[in-house]
Amino acid sequence: MKSIKLPRTIVNQLLTQAQRHADVEVCGLISAKEGEPVSIYPVDNIAADKQHLFEMDPEKQINAMRTMRENDEQLFAIYHSHPDAPALPSDKDIEQSSYPETLYLIISLSTKGVLEISGFYIRNNNIESVDLII
């Protein structure tokens, strides 16, 4: 199993965002410089059923990608939360994944007060778990 290091500051920002909007799936992008995660870019969820699905606002996603390029950053991860489901990719998450070389992070709020975060690569409908080191 591949190991990925995530800085505590990034993890804290993700958990705070998920807790602040606990009734909907939050989503966004994480950038890296030289392979090291450096910034999060929250993107509005425009899905019809925000509690169970996420769909990034296309314009805000494009703006986030543009800002990354301007800051000489690369896409490192795509994240979203599951307000009432485990930190595992749903069938819809797998179906909609389109960045096979990008890490997917899922934050779960369904663990009775303990936040859970898991990482995966999703390639050709196959899920590869990664060991997150914080």
What is the total number of structural domains?
Answer: 1
Strand order of the largest sheet: 1-7-6-5-4-2-3
How many helix segments?
A: 3
User: What separation lies between the terminal Cα atoms?
Assistant: 16 Å
What is the top-level CATH class?
Answer: Alpha Beta
What is the global morphology? globular
Tally of strands? 7
> Cα-atom Rg, whole angstroms?
14 Å
Category from helices, strands and their pairing: alpha/beta
Identify low-pLDDT runs: none
CATH architecture assignment name: 3-Layer(aba) Sandwich
In percent, how much strand structure appears in the residues? 35-45%
In CATH terms, the superfamily is Cytidine Deaminase, domain 2
Order of helices and strands: EHEEHEHEEE
CATH topology: Cytidine Deaminase, domain 2
Q: State the helicity in percent bands.
A: 10-25%
Question: How confident is the prediction overall: mean pLDDT?
Answer: 93
What profile does the largest beta sheet have?
7 strands, mixed
